Amino acid sequence: MLKIAAWNIRGLNSPLKQKEIFSFVQSQRLGLCGIVETKVRREHMSSTVSHCFPPNWDHLSNLDGVGSPARILCSCYLAQKKLTRGCGCGILLGRIK
Predict the structure, then answer these.
(1) For the chain, which terminal residue's Cβ has fewer other Cβ atoms within 10 angstroms, N or C?
(2) Measured distance CA(74)–CA(36) in Å, rounded
(3) Cα–Cα nearest to 18, from 50, 42, 43
(4) What tens digit of pLDDT does each residue of 31-81 get?
(5) What is the pTM of this model?
(6) What crossing angle do the helices spanning 15-28 and 42-52 adopt, rounded to 10°?
(7) What's the DSSP call for residue 68?
(8) Phi and psi at residue 74, in whole multiples of 5°?
(9) In this structure, are residues 38 and 51 in contact, taking their beta carbons and an 8 Å threshold?
(10) How far is the C-alpha of 82 from the C-alpha of 65, rounded, in Å?
(11) Contact criterion met (CB below 8 Å) for 69 and 89
(12) Strands 32-40 vs 4-8: parallel, antiparallel or unpaired
């Protein structure tokens, strides 16, 4: 069974919050995790994701080309499913395949 969690983190730029997410994902054995209010900029997204989720997880966010920070980050364990983006514009619509 796929375990899902959502978290309003109010900023994911702190290494302490990133470590907390990683520990939570591992301890709860999540398959899908949605994080809102991340405030992560494009140039920091890869390192932030690598600190928050194991390497075998896929992710997508609502980053746009304008330079606004991501507000939504969704990550999924790849052995479970693959995330595909459906829409943008400040709203993240994803489909699990």
Answers:
(1) N
(2) 9
(3) 50
(4) 989 999 999 999 999 999 999 999 889 888 888 767 789 899 999 888 755
(5) 0.80
(6) 40
(7) P
(8) -125, 135
(9) no
(10) 23
(11) no
(12) parallel
42-49 contacts: CB < 8 A, separation 24 or more? 42/67, 42/70, 44/13, 45/70, 48/12, 48/13, 48/18, 49/73, 49/75
Distance CA 72, CA 41 (A): 11
The dihedral formed by the CA atoms of 23, 26, 32 and 35, expressed in degrees to the nearest 10: 0
**Cα angle for residues 49, 90, 10 (degrees, 5° grid):** 50
Phi, psi at residue 30, to the nearest 5°? Answer: -75, 155
The dihedral through the CA atoms of 10, 90, 51, 6 has a sign that is positive
- What stretches of the chain show up as alpha helix (H) in DSSP? 15-28, 42-52
Output the CA angle 96-17-23, nearest 5 degrees.
65
